[in-house]
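Exam prep: given the inputs below (a chain plus adenosine monophosphate), describe the expected output before reading on.
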Amino acid sequence: MEFSIISEMFEMMEKTTKRIELTNILVELLKKTPKKIIPNVVYLLQGIIRPNFEGVELGIAEKLAIRAISKSAGLPIKKIEDDYRDGGDLGLTASNILKIKTQTTFTAEKITVERVYETLFKIAKLEGKGSQDLKMKYISSLLNDATPLEAKFVIKILLGTLRLGIAENTVMDALAIAFTGKKENRVQIENAYNVSSDLGKVSLIVATDGIDEIKKFKISLFSPIRPMLADRVQSEKDVIKKMPEQFVAEYKLDGERVQIHKQSDKIVLFSRRLENITQYYPDIVERIGKTLNVNEGVFEAEIVPINENTGEFLPFQELMHRRRKYKLDKAVSQYPITVNFFDVLYYDKKDCLNLECSERRKILEQIVHEDNFSKLVPMLFVKNENEVEDFLENSINAGCEGLMLKDPSAPYRAGMRGSNWLKLKREYRNELGDSLDLIVIGAYFGRGRRTGLYGTLLLATYNPEKDNFPSICKVGTGFTDESLDQLYQILSNKVTLKKNPRIVSEMEADIWFEPELVLEIVASEITLSPIHKTGLDLIRKSSGFALRFPKFTGKIRYEKAVEDASTGEEVFALYKRQSKINHEKWAFFREKYDIN
Ligand code: AMP
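Solution:
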């Protein structure tokens, strides 16, 4: 299949934000695509080449792409950099530059989707000495044969900046329409996606075997299941309102969520974002098998650091020592952990997703042999506010964050957030009622003790409709010397020459970053702001939301993707609640002082 077909469709998709139009273009594209390469096209649409959990990353630096464009165009690097600086999009730069070239030469042969895909795959797999040069050669050889439009999209995919605005849901709608004729069949496709996290694999089955095969889709070991998520509640009262007469209460441990896949001696670990994190936990790989009384299984647990002498849980940040590339052995012995199981999704050929929550817990209790490394999350059946309160008290005393409340009859709803699971945190660490997870988009150089570091960070929320990052505040408090150093190390790898076009901000930062890092922030109040762009126009024309007295809590939320960060809608909800609280305070005063 010619790559020009895809590029033309990508171009059309870039020009629209309407979901129906996007779906129609996608349906047309899928119908034109030979079945064999449907998964490849589905990955490319999302700007990836394999499902995320396989960790096959292109990770091409802008500099390398600039070198490749310069080589193909026969123009100096400086010229490419200048054009890029003016336009802000390296894909467009490649296209502009090659337009000039193709006016004078003929392209040798038409490039195909198969060739682009295979080349990208090879590039992703290259590592070690000399790999940069080889990558550059592969890229420029593709560019040599590409039309300007094709070059634009090749570069965007390579840099990870292809933003067609296609949500997974839209791809699933299109698959249902293109291959089953009915959009309603999306539900079955989504179920299959939720248990495999691999839209490419699912698309191939829909295209070749039809919807009946999809209905039979089963969990496969080592393909992660998309996690079930919880709704947040504010009080014990809200819990009682939303739960049945008797329900499950579990400690909400503050660590890293892990999905453990086991088959005989083979153990693979996935994070909440479904990245393979096996390498960071050699101790789990070594020790967990012995405590699980099954040949195969998929389990969910929370990894929590502990003090081995006292058995106390330690703060979740201690796990970050495991993310170091070197001296992992040392981190493993210095920062011991426990694995706290809270769910079983599959074991010995039995799919547990449709079993009731309390049934799954019973099975888990039979499978896990507890020792000082593997544990079951403490659990109790409760009925009323008092019991919830008592158990919450115990949980906080044990160093946990709060409680998870679960409907005992609910199945495991992969990939869904809903009220079958509720999370109740004890203390509201700030007046807002909750912390926010915000994305670092820029920084200002530090002064005094912070010279040479980033003294203040510029933060944004995520806007899912527009797929962009509107600013919300600057933050300069809550940092320790250690965290400033750590943030500098992390962020200096994310610096961009120009502000990423998805950042929406009027602020002039000293430095801009690729929006990738999420931090936990608390604040005293949400205010309206003429400068910041989160929730723009929601309350007042030309005003957005800003945070008053924002403070970094010390938690870098590595486990959160930028798409999981707080949204303008969430800030809006907190804003409304805050006004309600003021209103209630006012009502209280009115009553107390008898004011009308
Ligand atoms: P949050 O990250 O605040 O949305 O809270 C949900 C997270 O709590 C999950 O992703 C788990 O990592 C964690 N968690 C801790 N204890 C439990 C539990 N007993 N059941 C489910 N999730 C838990």
